[in-house]
Amino acid sequence: MRRYPAVGEPLACEPITKGLLNHGYRVATTRGAYFLKHHLDKQHLDDATGERSLIARQHRATQRLQSIGVPVAPPLADADGETVTVIDGHCFALHPWVDGRHRIGAQLTPDQSTRLGALLGAVHTGLEHVMGPGSGTQTTRRGHGSPDPADTFALIDELLDAARGVRPRDTPLDAFDELAVHRLVERRALLERHAHRRPPTPVGPAHGWVHGDFHPLNLLYRGSDPVAIVDWDRLGVQPRAEEAVRAAAIFFVQPAGKLELEKVKAYARAYREAAGVGSAELAAAVHRVWWERLNDFWILRWRYALGDRRADPQFPAVSALVVWWTREYEAVNEAFTG
To answer: Are residues 124 and 32 in the same domain?
Structure first.
């Protein structure tokens, strides 16, 4: 905090419990409240110099977006005019504190769902304006080829072994492991039936600059108004419509694993209009994200490979969604494109 003399003397520092990839703190000073972010999600970078450069690019993007009216919370500059502070090889940034709360799709009205879609469309068009047209050289992993079912079958076998585990004789699986085994067996059967529907790699103008992680924990509301889009760590070039579909699948999923399709329809219609995205582009994105979900087990990999159970509460809805989505594929596609 000594690097930021303009913010006053620090009085208290409290960790923020929400968030999966980075550490955050609410810092109270003699002049107000601030959000201190410790960047841990290095996206496979090996040194602080590369990380600092990447974070600085994210900061410049938010500064430019703010100048054209997109609700963001750009970082503060230190006494040397820098927005990234490196201490012992760790990167930090200080942001103004934004009073607000997170809202999931169930808390949004249809009109607010429309505003959400328009907001994401404004993000995509705004990024194109401030960053320039997207280029494939910046494309992240999601922009590459679609998952290979052969790899997924091998992963399912590994995860089944981990979920069943080594336990004393006659000791039953706990509730989570039992659900995991059920979903893994179910998913293998689904994938066997639908393996022929693997989508091609997207090419052409569908790629553009995107937030990269647009979901309820990265959007703050004050009342009914979105006031800040935060956590730009995954800023990059990807198929833009896929972000719209991916975000809707997080915002509007219900606990039983269904999507609120009327809200999705309002959201998607507003997104298409704001971003200038056609129905065909969005339909292709729906198919690719559905396939991605059909092959994805990130929560189980966190639990069984990394010993990290923070995402476990998301598993029941996430794992049920792909089953429901496969069954209601046409209705979901219509909600996004109709």
So the answer is: no
Q: Are residues 14 and 53 in the same domain?
A: yes
What's the domain range around 20?
Answer: 5-96
pLDDT tens profile 152-163 = 999 999 999 999
pLDDT of 107 > 60? The answer is yes
Instruction: Looking at the structure, tell me whether residues 258 and 290 fall in a common domain.
Output: yes
Name the average pLDDT for the chain. 91
Give dist(CA 202, CA 212) in Å, integer: 17
Annotate 56-83 with b (16+ C-beta within 10 A) or e (fewer).
bebbebbebbbeeebbbbbbbbbeeeeb
Find the helix packing angle between 315-327 and 298-305, rounded to 10°: 150
Rounded Cα distance, 267 and 274, in Å = 11
Alpha carbon distance 119, 48 (integer Å): 33
Instruction: Yes or no: say if 270 and 112 are a contact pair by the CB < 8 Å rule.
Output: no
